[in-house]
Design goal:
- By secondary structure, the protein is an alpha/beta fold.
- It has a single domain, classed as Rossmann fold.
- The chain is 30% helix and 34% strand.
- It has five helices and ten strands; from the N terminus they run H-E-E-H-E-H-E-E-E-E-H-E-H-E-E.
- The strands form three sheets. Strands 4-3-7-8-9-10 form a six-stranded mixed β-sheet, with helices on both faces.
- Strand 3, helix 3 and strand 4 form a beta-alpha-beta unit.
- Helix 2 crosses helix 3.
- It is globular and about 45 Å long.
């Protein structure tokens, strides 16, 4: 997605340790016009009418998933990174290691929001080592639901996450794939 790549080059900040900060437009402050175009692009890449739910993980994926959902006309459900008193009943859970936070979360999703009848599109902002996406795939499988695909805004193609997901046979669409990144620059896969 050329518009996204241009924005990453213009406003993204490469930090040491293979960290790309896009917080000025994607995951802290959100450029809604850009995210609206991202939502349209996900709909174009996932034309299936079978999709009944969009699944993401808190927090950065929620806004993107919500805007994309308006083009699918389906609800968004998100896995939470902490148990709270307003989550009642049975839950699905999976362990997820965060690349940027360097910690492991036990993510949970109430069983009342995902079941065997669902056809799920997973959406998230980043794919690096694949842990978050693998955790969400595990939850979908535990629910007996069908994975229709995974839409990622930015994939770090030089890390193993994308390859792992594709080897599972999941239809993975990344809008911008970074092929290499140094402490001062990045290049995209064409």
């Amino acid at each position: 997605m050329q518009l996204l790549k241009e924005r990453i080059l213009k406003d993204g900040v490469v930090k040491p340790g293979n960290v790309l900060k896009v917080d000025s437009f994607l995951n802290h402050q959100m450029d809604i016009d850009l995210i609206n175009e991202i939502g349209k692009e996900f709909r174009r890449r996932f034309p299936s009418e079978k999709i009944t739910k969009i699944l993401t993980i808190e927090a950065s994926g929620i806004g993107i998933a919500c805007i994309a959902a308006q083009y699918f006309h389906v609800p968004v459900v998100f896995a939470k990174k902490a148990q709270s008193i307003n989550i009642d009943g049975e839950v699905y859970h999976s362990k997820v290691e965060s690349f940027t936070h360097k910690r492991t979360y036990d993510v949970i999703l109430s069983k009342k929001f995902l079941g065997p009848e669902d056809h799920v599109l997973i959406i998230d902002d980043f794919l690096a080592n694949g842990c978050a996406l693998m955790g969400l795939i595990s939850i979908v499988k535990d629910a007996g639901a069908t994975i229709e695909g995974a839409g990622i805004v930015i994939e770090k193609g030089f890390q193993q996450g994308g390859d792992q997901i594709r080897k599972l046979g999941v239809h993975l669409e990344s809008l911008a794939i970074i092929s290499s990144m140094t402490d001062t620059s990045l290049t995209f896969k064409e």
